[in-house]
Design goal:
Keywords: Oxidoreductase. The chain is of the alpha+beta class. The chain contains four helices and seven strands. It has one domain: Electron Transport, Fmn-binding Protein, Chain A (Pnp Oxidase, Chain A). Strand 1 and strand 2 form a beta hairpin. Helix 3 runs antiparallel to helix 4. It starts with 6 loop residues before the first helix and ends in a 5-residue tail after the last strand.
Protein backbone atom coordinates (compact mmCIF):
# COMPACT_ATOMS: atom_id res chain seq x y z
CA UNK A 1 0.00 0.00 0.00
CA UNK A 2 1.22 3.50 -0.81
CA UNK A 3 1.60 6.38 1.64
CA UNK A 4 1.31 10.16 1.39
CA UNK A 5 4.72 10.35 3.03
CA UNK A 6 6.23 8.50 0.03
CA UNK A 7 8.14 11.27 -1.83
CA UNK A 8 6.82 10.19 -5.25
CA UNK A 9 3.20 10.08 -4.07
CA UNK A 10 3.53 13.44 -2.33
CA UNK A 11 5.13 15.02 -5.41
CA UNK A 12 2.28 13.68 -7.56
CA UNK A 13 -0.36 15.13 -5.20
CA UNK A 14 1.40 18.51 -4.94
CA UNK A 15 2.25 18.90 -8.64
CA UNK A 16 0.83 22.04 -10.20
CA UNK A 17 -2.85 22.64 -9.69
CA UNK A 18 -4.31 19.17 -10.09
CA UNK A 19 -7.80 19.00 -8.63
CA UNK A 20 -9.03 16.21 -6.44
CA UNK A 21 -12.23 14.30 -7.10
CA UNK A 22 -13.91 13.82 -3.72
CA UNK A 23 -16.25 10.89 -3.22
CA UNK A 24 -18.83 11.03 -0.45
CA UNK A 25 -22.30 9.67 0.33
CA UNK A 26 -25.50 11.66 -0.20
CA UNK A 27 -28.28 11.70 2.39
CA UNK A 28 -30.22 9.08 0.40
CA UNK A 29 -27.17 6.81 0.07
CA UNK A 30 -26.16 7.72 -3.49
CA UNK A 31 -22.42 7.99 -4.14
CA UNK A 32 -21.41 11.49 -5.23
CA UNK A 33 -18.17 12.90 -6.64
CA UNK A 34 -17.18 16.56 -6.75
CA UNK A 35 -13.96 18.34 -7.70
CA UNK A 36 -12.06 20.11 -4.93
CA UNK A 37 -9.01 22.29 -4.47
CA UNK A 38 -6.70 20.94 -1.76
CA UNK A 39 -3.26 21.05 -0.19
CA UNK A 40 -1.21 18.39 1.57
CA UNK A 41 -0.21 19.03 5.19
CA UNK A 42 1.84 16.30 6.80
CA UNK A 43 0.04 13.08 5.91
CA UNK A 44 -3.37 14.76 5.52
CA UNK A 45 -5.29 16.13 2.54
CA UNK A 46 -6.75 19.50 3.55
CA UNK A 47 -9.55 21.48 1.90
CA UNK A 48 -12.36 23.79 2.89
CA UNK A 49 -16.08 23.72 2.22
CA UNK A 50 -19.24 25.35 3.46
CA UNK A 51 -20.76 23.74 6.53
CA UNK A 52 -24.25 24.10 5.02
CA UNK A 53 -23.38 22.69 1.59
CA UNK A 54 -24.32 19.18 0.47
CA UNK A 55 -20.67 18.22 0.88
CA UNK A 56 -20.43 19.74 4.38
CA UNK A 57 -23.66 18.06 5.49
CA UNK A 58 -22.51 14.72 4.07
CA UNK A 59 -19.21 14.92 5.94
CA UNK A 60 -21.07 15.70 9.19
CA UNK A 61 -23.29 12.61 8.65
CA UNK A 62 -20.54 10.24 7.54
CA UNK A 63 -16.91 11.37 7.65
CA UNK A 64 -15.66 8.54 5.43
CA UNK A 65 -14.34 10.00 2.18
CA UNK A 66 -12.34 8.99 -0.86
CA UNK A 67 -10.22 11.40 -2.88
CA UNK A 68 -8.79 10.60 -6.31
CA UNK A 69 -6.16 12.79 -7.95
CA UNK A 70 -5.23 11.79 -11.47
CA UNK A 71 -3.02 12.63 -14.41
CA UNK A 72 -5.19 12.66 -17.52
CA UNK A 73 -2.40 12.41 -20.10
CA UNK A 74 0.45 9.95 -20.71
CA UNK A 75 1.90 8.34 -18.73
CA UNK A 76 -1.45 8.56 -16.87
CA UNK A 77 -1.51 7.97 -13.15
CA UNK A 78 -3.52 8.37 -10.00
CA UNK A 79 -3.45 8.49 -6.23
CA UNK A 80 -6.54 7.46 -4.30
CA UNK A 81 -6.78 8.42 -0.63
CA UNK A 82 -9.44 6.72 1.49
CA UNK A 83 -9.93 8.04 4.98
CA UNK A 84 -11.88 9.83 7.65
CA UNK A 85 -12.55 13.56 7.74
CA UNK A 86 -12.00 15.74 10.78
CA UNK A 87 -13.45 19.26 10.58
CA UNK A 88 -12.62 22.56 12.24
CA UNK A 89 -14.26 25.98 12.32
CA UNK A 90 -11.26 27.71 13.93
CA UNK A 91 -11.09 31.11 12.19
CA UNK A 92 -7.29 31.35 12.15
CA UNK A 93 -6.89 27.84 10.76
CA UNK A 94 -9.63 28.50 8.21
CA UNK A 95 -8.05 31.73 6.93
CA UNK A 96 -4.59 30.16 6.77
CA UNK A 97 -5.89 27.07 4.96
CA UNK A 98 -8.09 28.97 2.50
CA UNK A 99 -5.19 31.31 1.67
CA UNK A 100 -2.76 28.44 1.17
CA UNK A 101 -5.18 26.59 -1.11
CA UNK A 102 -5.82 29.78 -3.08
CA UNK A 103 -2.08 30.30 -3.57
CA UNK A 104 -1.86 26.89 -5.20
CA UNK A 105 -4.81 27.32 -7.56
CA UNK A 106 -5.08 31.05 -8.35
CA UNK A 107 -1.52 32.18 -7.57
CA UNK A 108 0.19 34.10 -4.82
CA UNK A 109 -0.99 37.45 -6.21
CA UNK A 110 -4.65 36.59 -5.46
CA UNK A 111 -4.19 34.22 -2.53
CA UNK A 112 -5.06 36.71 0.21
CA UNK A 113 -8.18 37.85 -1.66
CA UNK A 114 -9.47 34.29 -2.04
CA UNK A 115 -8.38 33.41 1.49
CA UNK A 116 -10.49 36.24 2.92
CA UNK A 117 -13.42 35.28 0.71
CA UNK A 118 -13.35 31.61 1.73
CA UNK A 119 -12.03 31.91 5.29
CA UNK A 120 -15.32 33.13 6.75
CA UNK A 121 -17.78 31.92 9.39
CA UNK A 122 -19.81 28.99 8.11
CA UNK A 123 -16.86 27.47 6.26
CA UNK A 124 -15.06 24.36 7.48
CA UNK A 125 -11.49 23.16 7.28
CA UNK A 126 -11.63 19.47 6.38
CA UNK A 127 -8.66 17.22 7.09
CA UNK A 128 -8.80 13.86 5.35
CA UNK A 129 -6.82 11.44 7.50
CA UNK A 130 -5.82 8.47 5.36
CA UNK A 131 -6.73 4.91 6.25
CA UNK A 132 -5.63 3.59 2.86
CA UNK A 133 -3.66 5.06 -0.03
CA UNK A 134 -3.48 3.48 -3.48
CA UNK A 135 -1.20 4.79 -6.21
CA UNK A 136 -0.19 4.01 -9.75
CA UNK A 137 1.94 6.89 -10.94
CA UNK A 138 2.67 5.46 -14.39
CA UNK A 139 -0.19 3.41 -15.80
CA UNK A 140 1.60 2.92 -19.13
CA UNK A 141 4.68 1.28 -17.57
Amino acid sequence: MASISDPDVRAFLEHGSRTGKLGYTARDGRPLVTPIWFVVEGDEIVFNTGGNTAKGAAIARDPRLTLCVDLEEPPYGFVQVQGTAVTSEDPDELLRTATRIAARYVGEERAEEFGRRNGVPGELVVRLRPTRVLANLDVTA
